[in-house]
Amino acid sequence: MLLIAVTGSKVESYGNELFSVWMFQHLTLSMAIPPLWVLGSPGLLLLRSTSHRGPGRNVLALALSALRSRPAAGHVFLEIFFLASGLLFIMPVLATGPLPVRQSYLGRCFDLFVEMPLHVFIGVVLMMATKPLLTTFVNPPPEWGVDVMQDQQLAGALAWSYGEPVALVVVVIFAMRWNRDDKRMNAAQDRRAEIDGDSDLEAYNNFLRSLSAAERPETR
C-alpha cells in the first residue's frame, strides 16, 4: 500500500515538480519500503507456497520476469533504482530467506553504521546551499507560489529527519535478531555437548596430555 501511495497517487505528480516531494518519494522508496518488504519475506513465502513443478514453475518464472522488467521513463527508472538500492542494502541485514552469501552479524552491523550518516550529510548540504542544486526543480508551476530555495531546504530537512527514525527501528530489529540467534546457537551447542560430550574440551585435554607425555623424562 505504501509503494502504491508514493508512486501511483498525486505524490507522483508533485514529485515531478517539487524537490521536497521528490525527496520524500526517494526516502520512502529507499528506506521505509525495503525493510517492510524484507520483513514480510514475500520471496520466501512464494518459494515455500508454490510448487517448483507444473503450474507452480510458471508462477515462479512469471514473478522473476516481472522483477527483470525495465520501464524506460527516467523518473520511473529513478524510483526503481531507489527501491532496488534500498532492497540490496537491507536484504543482507534483515532477510531470513536463502541468500547466495550470508554476512556475519558483525559485518551487517558495520554496514548499518556506515549507511546511517549519509542522509544526514546530504540533508545538511541541501539546507546550507545558497542556490538551487538541481535545475529539474527550479521552475515549478507559478500558480503554486512555491519558493524554490525553501522547497530545497525542506527537502534537506526531510533527508536529515526522515531517515534517522527508520534507521533506528532497523537497528533495534537487527539487535533483537542477533541476540535471538546467539541464544539459539548457544542452546544448540549445549544440547550437543550433553549428547556427545564437549568435543572441543576433550580435544584440548588430549592436547595437554600429549604435551605432558612429551615433556616427561624417559625412565630406564
From TrEMBL:
Q: Name one GO cellular component term.
A: plasma membrane
Which coarse location class applies to the principal site listed for this UniProt protein? membrane
Keyword Transmembrane in record: yes
Transmembrane as a keyword of this entry, yes or no, is yes
Coiled-coil positions are: none
> Which keywords does the record carry?
Cell membrane, Membrane, Transmembrane, Transmembrane helix
Q: What InterPro entries does the entry give?
A: Caa3_assmbl_CtaG-rel
On the tree of life, the source organism's domain of life is Bacteria
Protein name in the entry: Membrane protein
Q: Which organism is it from?
A: Rhodococcus erythropolis (Arthrobacter picolinophilus)
Q: What is the lineage of its organism?
A: Bacteria, Bacillati, Actinomycetota, Actinomycetes, Mycobacteriales
